[in-house]
TrEMBL record:
Top-rank taxon: Bacteria
Annotated protein name in UniProt: DNA sulfur modification protein DndB
InterPro entries referenced in this protein's UniProt entry, alphabetically: DGQHR-contain_dom (IPR017601), DNA_S_mod_DndB (IPR017642)
Organism, scientific name: Kyrpidia spormannii
CDD domains, per database record: dndB
Lineage, uppermost ranks: Bacteria, Bacillati, Bacillota, Bacilli, Bacillales
Pfam families: DndB
Amino acid sequence: MTNVKLPMFYTFPVIRGIQAGREYYVSMCPLRLVPRLLVFDEEDLEPNLRSQRVLNKARIPVLAKYMIDNPNGYVFSAITVSIDGDVEFHPISDDLNYYNLGTIRVPMDAKFIVNDGQHRRAGIEAALKERPELGNETIAIVFFIDRGLKRCQQMFADLNRHAVRPTESLNILYDHRDPIAEIARSLTHQVPVFEGLTELERSTISNRSTKLFTLSGIYRATCELLTAIGDEEDLEDQHKLAYNYWNTISRYLREWNLAKEGRVRASELRRDYINVHTIALVALGRLGASLVQQHPDEWTNMICRIGSVDWHRSNPRWEGRVTIGGRISYSRNNLVLLTNELKHIMGVELSNEELEAEAAHKKGLSIAGRISH
């Protein structure tokens, strides 16, 4: 008697669609099957594509934690997959109303390549190790037939070329899980100088804009400020500190108030002053954290000293510290150097990192001075 090896298949319930004259299929796949079916193997890809598809392993625990921490609220978009194999579609009925509903049979030796969603796949795999009960939930998978995987590279390029990431400000505007995002949003209408002058959607401000701040800038500055009290404080205390600090310091920033009163155009202030740019806002947040930590009972009285700062872009003390050739530099080093100058004016001690940056800056100025002579 001859042993006959029967072919083995995966079967998926699907909806059939057409794009660019080619059939594709959408299915719902249990999460527990995702790591088994969708093996992300860079060795299957051409070398000139691998460098674009290397997994950022730091993202995997972040995605897994997102699922685990939000079992009733996580959201993942569909994973896009190319199948290299002889796929057969079987409609459930000849009725035209149901002709695109059916199943596909995929040989078990077919090759599945993830075109878009490799980090989601890896995050799901990591989350299931801790919360295996999530395996009964589903994710949408879009299957494209790509025999020989000839179109795989082009699909990857097309999917990523036309993908547009939302701005940082828009992410903060819609993020209801991050408590600091919640605080930042509330500040935009609770702090008088922020109200009406904050760009909520974009993370950059155009030359013609009437806005002075971005929501992402307020968020970043407030994150710096709240390092003064840490995560152990409740949201109400964090909110109270943020409101008190920004409301108090804004009284002594003349340029902010000129814009609020409509006496100077925002575009003119952005052109001529540095304290209306995000780097200054974040530096003020860092300054606030040190003030609160070092002078918890006196900072509200000390903060009036900020009114003595000459914020004009032409002020020579800013060159090399926050401007390079008159243009504002947004580097981390410049952020530290700007914060150092504000701390010096306010009488606040510098951290070790700030002292090192200050020494390097002064050394650079000294070398530049000798060269010029």
